[in-house]
Here is the input.
Amino acid sequence: MRPLTTFAACATILSFCACKEKGEIQHFQVKKSTPPTTQQTPDTNTNSNTNSNTQPQQNNPYSWTLPDGWSAQPASGMRLATVLIPTASGTLNASITEFGGDLAGNVNRWRGQIGLPQLPEKDVLANLEKVDTAIGQGYIAILTNPSSPENAMLAAIIPRPSGTSVFVKVTGPADTLKSIATPFRQFTQSLKQ
Here is the structure.
């Protein structure tokens, strides 16, 4: 709507300029258009769980219960949310995303990110922990490269019927990730739609 209004104003100004004598200075005032206002509506996404750590997310199909001390930031970019996890050595950032790809392909991609070799597809499940969630059965991987223990990964993958998967992924030192493995598992189990 705004480009059309601007175009009409410019066309009117040009038509006036073409009709006046050469050298005559003309002044025009064009009222600045204002963008349409949008009515803000309150978030209607409610959750019956009274735990203050339950986090329904605006424009996010999933909700969860955060372990004590954890906090969530809203969606940004390709992330559905970022979860901040305080630890003795600093705050870790876990990403929650949803993408496609098969289980073995995603796990082997993660392994490659920390310098581990790929596993044959038949061996991938044996290296994962099964976890039940309200959105389906998922898997948790703790990936540590012995030659680089400061660059480890704790990740969950929950395949969805649509062909996508929900991912929860956090990187950091192996010892720090091991210290949050239990609340990470509880957080993953709390995911629901």
